[in-house]
Amino acid sequence: MRIVLLLAILGGAAAVWLWWEIRHWTPDPAEYPDQGVEIGSADGAVNFRTLRALGASFAYLDASRGASGRDPAFVHNLADARDAGLLAGAVHRFDPCIMADRQTANFVTMIPRDETLLPPVIHLAETAENCPERVSEAAVESELTTLINQIETHAGKPVLLKIDRDFEDTYGLAPRFERNLWLTRTRFPPEYAGRPWLLWTANEYFRSPAASGSLRWMVAQN
């Protein structure tokens, strides 16, 4: 019984250490000197100057979603990020149930054409499985192509595609679009897109003095 109790204590201690280590881990800056963070209104109040002191040099900000979703913190976060000396960019979350034209209209209403912004990002997360009407894989790819072209025309620079694993497993679009990729996998470099990535969300649960909750810490690959 004593051995069983000791093993249980050691196992619990190891689990606590692993939980703490993951929540405070970031990739080695010697290997990834360009590090940043993704921020949205769900993250609450964020101190961008503290993020800069922690090693962030850029921030991507959740901005719009589908045809009408708008992050209420975007304008404030953009101003604060710039005041802290961070490069900043905007993220649009793609809705496969909605036509591209309506999504583009939402994005351009939120995001001014500004050469100082980082390349815009289209986040591919939801699949068409729960759309009110059936949307084929071909239709998803077609509308995404239109959205990419329209947002690039507005921004004057190529978009980045942030592709979640479930979306890629469903549609396999990463090899079909010659755009830089942003992938997600906590602690270990992601490989699910089948080709190199530019941005990597390396820790989805990063805790720091910059915010009361978890943040999404990311790095850029040269």
Description:
The protein has 222 residues and is of the alpha/beta class. It is built from six helices and nine strands. It has one domain (2-220): Glycosidases (TIM Barrel, Alpha-Beta Barrel). The chain has helices spanning 2-24, 48-53, 74-83, 100-110, 137-155, 165-171, and strands at residues 35-39, 56-65, 69-70, 87-93, 121-124, 160-163, 181-184, 199-206, 215-220. It has an eight-stranded mixed barrel with strand order 1-2-4-5-6-7-8-9, surrounded by four helices. It starts with a helix and ends with a strand.
Question: What is the structure about, briefly put?
Answer:
It contains six helices and nine strands, in the order H-E-H-E-E-H-E-H-E-H-E-H-E-E-E.
The CATH architecture category equals: Alpha-Beta Barrel
Principal-axis shape equals globular
CATH class term:
Alpha Beta
Radius of gyration: 19 Å
Distinctive features:
alpha/beta, 23% strand, 222 residues, 34% helix, TIM Barrel, eight-stranded mixed beta barrel, single chain
Topology, element by element:
Elements: H1 2-24, E1 35-39, H2 48-53, E2 56-65, E3 69-70, H3 74-83, E4 87-93, H4 100-110, E5 121-124, H5 137-155, E6 160-163, H6 165-171, E7 181-184, E8 199-206, E9 215-220
Parallel strand pairs: 1-2, 2-4, 4-5, 5-6, 6-7, 7-8
Antiparallel strand pairs: 1-9, 2-3, 8-9
Helix pairs in contact: 4-5
